[in-house]
User: What shape does this take?
Amino acid sequence: MIEVEPDRWEATHEVRNSTVVGFKPVRLMGASGPVETDVVEHDGFAGATIPGQAGAEPRAPAQLILGARLERGDSGCLGLDLEFERFAPSRQAPSAPPYLLYQGMTNLRWGGIGGYGLLLEQPRIVWDLTFYQ
Assistant: This one.
C-alpha cells in the first residue's frame, strides 16, 4: 500500500474491497505469477466482527491463513477474492476484488507450510483507506 500526493496521481477509479470473512478461494498476485489457493483458517475476529476502531491501532490483526505459500520477496502482494468470480450466477461475473495483503509463510496447524495475509477490510475501517485500480 502506498500513499500518493493528489497532484502526482492520474485519474483512476475507486475499487471496493471484499469485506466478507470466510473460507473462500483467493488469488495471490505474487512476483512469480498468480497462485490460486483457499483461506483455510482465520483469526483475530473477536465476536465474529472485524476488530478496529476508527483511528485507533487494532488490538489484534485480522489474519487469514492460506493453503499455499508464495516465494521469498512476495510479501506485500495483493490477494483477490475469487468467490464472486467463481460462483456468480452469470458468465459476466464481476472481477475479483482486493481482499488481503500477503505477509509470508506460516506453519499450518495440521502440518505443512501455508501462507498468511492480513484482511484489507480491517485497515480500511481503522485508517479510512480507499483502494484504486
Observations:
- The domain at 21-127 is CATH 2.40.10 (Thrombin, subunit H).
- The mean pLDDT is 83.
- The chain has one domain: 21-127.
